Amino acid sequence: MQGTQLFFSNLYYFLEFVCVYFATILGFCAIMSVFVTGIMLILRSTVFSKHIFGRAALWCLLIPVIFCGKLHLYYQTYVGFKLFYWWYELCVTRWISVLYCAGIAVTGLVFITKRKRLRRRVDHLYDSKRFSSKYTIKEYPGQVSSFCTGCIKPVIVIPEDIDDSRLFVVIRHEETHIRLGHLWILLAYDILRTLLWPNILLHICVRFFKRDLEDICDAVTIQRGRINAYDYGEAIIGCAKDMLDIRKKLGLENGMSFAVDDSFKALRKRLERIACHKAYNTRTLTALIVVTIMLVVAGIGLVKAGSYERINYNDEISSVCFSNNFNDISDIFVDYDKSVVTGYDDEYIYVDADALFEKYPEARTGGGYFYFSVGGYYKIPGIGGGGGWGEIDAGDISSGTITIINHTEIDIWNRIIMWM
Q: Are 101 and 15 in contact (CB under 8 A)?
């Protein structure tokens, strides 16, 4: 019975630690993402407003953000302390951490439910025989904007009565979405929104994100498929007329639609870009992709270099306290220079008795206990565990170096935490 109670007690503290730790670092990432998203939106509407692939590359700025949860600047710089440390103090209040983790669970559940609902509806549609493709094509019995969905098993859905004149363009467009990995990219963005759910900008920017993916898909489809820009635009206009609010009924926001359910202004700009389409240089585009990947990797490297390690050991710090009453422990001495606790290993703690009595002269008369804490680790400052402890009766201490049994606290729960 005691073993069961101990297990659930340890499980509770483990889950509490995990909750506080991840809420803290993901909260830091969410705050950082607000600044990055703001900068990205400004650049998107100014410097890169006329550059389709440049606008898409800007979204890669969000990738290093997910690694920003353990930056030194949150604790060691004035600006970081003022802008971010308030979140660290909030997470010390356990219910804030629980609320953040609950928000992740609820947001993720909503996204999963929407995707499953759409997939079930698509699975009930019948296969189309009107056009051959390496991907499954299904027909919807009514008016709907053509779309694709499903990362592992992609499916293209087209309306049953779509004109044959538009069919070729529509299928090629959706195939391009799939081949470019847009469905996977959209899934990754949903995961990012789930983890950093307090950042409202990420949820608002979904429409801008999809617009940029659509612009890329338009440019690639027109060039690779050698489709006339006028015919392509006509197909978009025709599909946009058929949409109305049927798309919302199907929940197609989780897929990539041919004619996005967007404002007239956005549709007009998209058609203008198609009308002014100029062939892109594949070598230049390849170089842009390579440079973007290199910059993202370099950004992640810089972030990791300025962050705390996964495990940070407290090898150089020990603490000592003396008390005549176990329930009244005070006057804790932190030994930074190893003047009292000269060292320790897995079995023993080594203490300089003369230095100890110099620090606590009242202990020379005996009648009290010394308590020692050594080692341990931290994930970020203030959040860690492990280490060892020892105790000794002051009356049992003689001069010279004394040896105290080290009771280590590195159990399976701590091993898991250290691995995370």
A: no
